[in-house]
TrEMBL record:
This is SDR family oxidoreductase. The keyword Transmembrane helix does not apply. Belongs to the short-chain dehydrogenases/reductases (SDR) family. The keyword Oxidoreductase applies. It comes from the Bacteria. It comes from Pedococcus ginsenosidimutans. CDD domains: SDR_c (cd05233). Keywords: Oxidoreductase. InterPro entries: NAD(P)-bd_dom_sf, Sc_DH/Rdtase_CS, SDR_fam. Pfam families: adh_short (PF00106).
Length: 265
């Protein structure tokens, strides 16, 4: 089902390709006006142009404090109101606890603090007027984990925790929050995840348009978790009910996989 988005103002970060581009397309098709943000200015411009006069490219960094402030300011100028903010931009860094500090810093800023910084600017106004929607593209790794990619697993858990906190704090004040937690999605991030990532996620990977469709269904239903792979719910429940057994299974799976080759810088 499609939520009522006619005339709404939407911001999508990381919208130059993949899930973000699919979100932008779906929101425009539903009657919203969309700001297409990406660090890759050419990609953002290309997506916006393909969507017609209801989409505007606002390239830039959606993770730093100054970058988020500039994006929200420019979006308000374009849209009047930011009704929906999709914190979709993300990075995948592999490696263990020994990976370089830069990988941790980049992962923390893009996967977590980008969400915090956007909420800091948007939520007070949403609470004041009694409505607003925050969409966080998290990952099944935020509910479960992923072998061989400590920065990604840890920061995606944090992104989920922040989304939960937003919902429990402001959900009765008109702010809706949705955490999108797919496993494999056919995007550049999957193709660059190396043999281990593809072995884990490619067999059941879905298309970005499928993720957008499931987000809209969750928005219509008022459901917090968006699970394009429904089996993730069962795995999440097993993890919670018997964490020792779940960890033993994860160790076996990790030992059977080739090395993860996500970016480590």
């Amino acid at each position: 089902m499609t939520p009522d988005l006619a005339g709404k103002g939407v911001v999508v970060t990381g919208a130059g390709r993949g899930i973000g581009a699919a979100y932008a397309k779906a929101f425009v098709a539903a009657g919203a006006t969309v700001v297409v943000n990406d660090l890759d200015a050419e990609a953002a411009t290309s997506v916006a142009k393909s969507l017609g006069d209801k989409a505007f490219a606002v390239p830039g960094d959606a993770s730093s404090e100054d970058g988020v402030d500039a994006l929200v300011t420019a979006s308000r100028e374009r849209l009047g109101e930011v009704d929906v903010y999709c914190a979709n931009a993300g990075v995948a860094r592999g490696g263990t606890e020994a990976v370089a500090e830069k990988a941790w810093d980049v992962s923390w800023n893009v996967n977590v603090m980008a969400h915090v910084r956007a909420a800091r600017l948007l939520v007070p106004h949403w609470v004041e007027r009694g409505s607003g929607t925050f969409v966080a593209t998290v990952s099944a790794a935020g509910l479960l984990s992923i072998p061989g990619a400590a920065p990604y697993a840890v920061t995606k858990h944090a992104a989920l925790a922040f989304s939960e906190w937003l919902s429990m704090t402001y959900g009765d004040k008109g702010v809706r929050v949705h955490a999108v937690c797919p496993q494999g999605v056919r995007t550049d991030m999957l193709w660059s995840s190396g043999a281990a990532g593809r072995a884990l996620m490619e067999p059941d990977a879905v298309d970005p348009d499928d993720v957008a469709r499931d987000l809209f269904a969750a928005m219509e239903a008022g459901r917090f978790l968006v699970l394009p792979h429904p089996e993730v719910a069962e795995m999440y429940a097993r993890r919670a009910s018997d964490p020792d057994r779940w960890l033993a299974g994860m160790r076996r799976m990790s030992g059977a996989l080739p090395s993860v080759t996500m970016g480590t810088d």
